[in-house]
Amino acid sequence: MLRSVGQKLVAVSEEDPRVTELRTAVSRLRRELAAHPVEFPDRAVAEDELAALDAMAAGGLPEIPRLRRSLLLIAGAIGSVSALAKGLGDVRNAVELFGGPPLH
């Protein structure tokens, strides 16, 4: 969408801010993981799930159960790598923006 500001046309994003936050956090963690020099057994799992999160976010509003599943798999895969803890926390916080766990 373009909006007129003065005599300029400025692009205005209509993306949900939660999706923007998720995409930013996922992108950051993907870069940190790619730069991490140590291989670990579940690295491919983390990379695949981060790619899945990115694809879900790029598609608009993602499914909350699928977001949470991916987060659990990523946390399980890289949870013990302390160098990635902040990035993982940022992804977790972004996922939580979509709502807390379902109440039973």
UniProtKB/TrEMBL annotation:
In terms of Pfam families, this protein maps to: DUF5955
- InterPro entries per the record? DUF5955 (IPR045999)
Protein's name in the database: DUF5955 family protein
Q: What is the protein's species of origin?
A: Streptomyces aureus
